What does this fold into?
Amino acid sequence: MQLYHKPMIICAVYSSKGGVGKTAAAVNLAYVAAHGGQKVLLCDMDSQGSASYYYRIKPKKRFNRARLLAGEAESYIRGTDYPGLDLLPAHFSFRKLDVALNDRGIKTGGSALVELFAPLAREYDVLLLDCPPNLTVLSEHIIVAADFIIVPVVPTTLSILALDQLLKLMRKLGCRRDKLLAFFSMVEKRKSMHADIMRKYSDHPIFLSSAILYLAEIEKMGITRRPVGAGTGRSLAASYYQALWQEIELRSGS
Ligand SMILES: Nc1ncnc2c1ncn2[C@@H]1O[C@H](COP(=O)(O)OP(=O)(O)OP(=O)(O)O)[C@@H](O)[C@H]1O
Ligand SMILES: [Mg+2]
It folds into this structure.
């Protein structure tokens, strides 16, 4: 008999930069966490709907931004092909989530998203949010609501700049700095800039030691439409996401 149920953790995979591997990470980390026995909800917060596409899931007809903000998310959650893993699909109307959330304001230490997600704690151990590439009101709500902000960083100067901007925003919002967990993404070791930047930041407390290499296997998810670990045979990419999730769990104390 389980007497104590661990609280649900909310992990937002976020970066203001586009195309850095957020969706690839969210989709694969959600799969790894569920495969490891946790009850996981992947929330596709990006109106592009890439995470929903990878899992071959479309939103129900009546779902939209207004229903999400009315606290009805639970009714629109869909099961995936994988045990322990559900998905809240994105809807095209999510592109205006910003405008809607702007009306609700952001309080110190509080966000409308916290209230929206709270009922899901009955059902899930982990909420993984795949976030759009913005630095907007929605980003602020996500940053405040998340227990951990998982940031893929391609080892380039501009990605480091984006990370600095995020830290600045977190300070402004009164967030703990230690909830930011960055990892190097789409790493190409033969590129000297990648190697130099990784060397420079290897001991930085914000960075996890796990990194995700640039691998054709991950790129091909657009064709296979399944997480890298779900195919037959051994997957190098899957082992990288597995190591990344283990490190996130360790840091989160879950
Ligand atoms: N480690 C990787 N190796 C090779 N290709 C990758 C890797 N990670 C992501 N990709 C590919 O790069 C592209 C962008 O990745 P992804 O969609 O995950 O980025 P994103 O940060 O979510 O983008 P957006 O900001 O548009 O939401 C996709 O085509 C994806 O398949
Ligand atoms: Mg994405």
